[in-house]
Write a structure and sequence with these properties.
Number of helices: 11
Strand order of the largest sheet: 2-1-3-8-7-4-5-6
CATH topology: Arginase, Chain A
Largest sheet: 8 strands, parallel
Distance between the termini: 32 Å
Oligomer: single chain
Strand content: 5-15%
CATH architecture: 3-Layer(aba) Sandwich
CATH class: Alpha Beta
Shape: globular
């Protein structure tokens, strides 16, 4: 197998644009790509930057209902035809000209990477434009039109992968991807997110475990609002590595929505850039430990488009390339100058929030007075026995 790393990028991905005032601003992608270029990440040995064509109907309908795809096409040609029954033309998912092509291109990028991993043409793949985890088979939801993560998993299964794990680290529950594989024993979905009691989409609790044909195939860890670095990292590491290792996937897919950050305007977690970097490094190691190194890393949410998203995903690309950026590294001056020109303000000058991003592992013991520990234990007790794991000790 090659050790090549493929990264999806092309300015055409900026076409996924819901409008000037929408939180899902395409400038977050442009700024990420610019920062990657300034750091030379796209030119590193073994890194291949690839574009993608829009996914065809066969790919899209492997996940989505044909009637929904037809509705997206119609709204894309004329936004006045958007139908709210399909989640289109809403405040979250307003229709815009070219919407079908823009959303399908994101799917094409993630699917191409997944196929390359299974074929042995690449070891790692990164599509920071992807991670559209709320899109469901029959409707758009939560800024997501087509579910590229689910389509990539389906494509990998079609290409010969037998088992795939999908880990979602976004602030929001990965409900759409979970729904696609709810009753599929070949796929394990794990979502660590802010509790649905305080955040959209209002789902993703410990007792949501999958369908009758795949009980335990969905795992959810719902964290209290305002959980910070130590709690978030403790939660991720108390659930994800154990389950992924037990499931023994052929490929590990991870979604790195950075709306967990304390500055994000939509979420209520208090995670730092440094903790997100630690989590990405952990997922990288886990891919090598449990999935033969095959790792598909996707973007996702993230709405602080200057201070957070570009730095977080540049760290992700650097991690995948095998040479992480040290936290204290200065942000390149040309990128900072571009931000000043475009936004009229300064961006952070270093690739860190200055946080230690340390945590205490679950082996230290359970604290019943800690809300994070209670959430972790609820998930472990619900899901671990279904995978042959001891919820109190493994």
């Amino acid at each position: 197998m090659t050790d090549a790393v493929r990264v999806v990028w092309d300015p055409k991905f900026n076409g996924y644009d819901f409008g000037r005032w929408h939180p899902m601003a395409p400038v977050r992608l442009d700024l990420t790509a610019r920062l990657c270029r300034e750091f030379g990440l796209f030119d590193r040995p073994g890194v291949q930057v690839v574009t993608a064509e829009p996914a065809d109907d066969d790919l899209l309908t492997s996940v989505h209902d044909p009637a929904y795809v037809a509705a997206v096409k119609a709204a894309s040609a004329d936004p006045r035809q958007a139908q709210e029954v399909f989640g289109l033309g809403t405040e979250d998912d307003p229709a815009f000209p070219g919407m079908h092509e823009a959303a399908a291109r994101i799917v094409g990028g993630s699917v191409d990477l997944g196929r390359a991993l299974v074929a042995g043409d690449a070891l790692h793949g990164v599509n920071f434009c992807g991670g559209m985890h709320h899109a469901k088979p029959g409707c758009a939801s939560g800024f997501c039109v087509y579910n590229d993560a689910a389509a990539a998993v389906v494509a990998m299964l079609r290409e010969g992968a037998e088992r795939v794990v999908y880990v979602d680290l976004d602030c929001h529950h990965g409900d759409g991807t979970e729904q696609v594989f709810w009753d599929d024993p070949r796929v394990l979905t794990i979502s660590v997110h802010e509790s649905g009691t305080t955040l959209f989409p209002g789902t993703g609790f410990a007792d949501e475990l999958g369908g009758p044909g795949a009980l335990g195939g969905a795992v959810n860890l719902a964290l209290p609002a305002r959980t910070g670095d130590a709690g978030w990292l403790r939660a991720v590491h108390a659930v994800v590595p154990q389950l992924v290792t037990a499931f023994a996937p052929d490929v590990l897919v991870t979604q790195h929505g950075c709306d967990t950050h304390a500055l994000d305007p939509l979420g209520h977690l208090m995670v730092s850039l440094d903790a997100q970097r630690v989590a990405a490094a952990s997922m990288h190691r886990l891919a090598h430990d449990a999935a033969g190194g095959r790792w598909l890393a996707l973007g996702g949410g993230g709405y602080e488009v200057v201070d957070v998203v570009p730095r977080t995903w540049a760290h992700l690309v650097a991690e995948a390339s095998g040479a992480p950026i040290a936290p204290g590294t200065a942000v390149p001056a040309p990128w900072l100058a571009h931000v000043r020109d475009v936004f009229g303000r300064d961006a952070p000058a270093a690739m860190t929030d200055g946080q230690p991003a340390t945590f205490t592992g679950w082996e230290s013991g359970y604290d019943p007075d800690d809300a994070v520990d209670r959430a972790i234990l609820a998930t472990r007790r619900a899901a671990f026995p279904l995978h042959g794991l001891d919820p109190d000790f493994d």
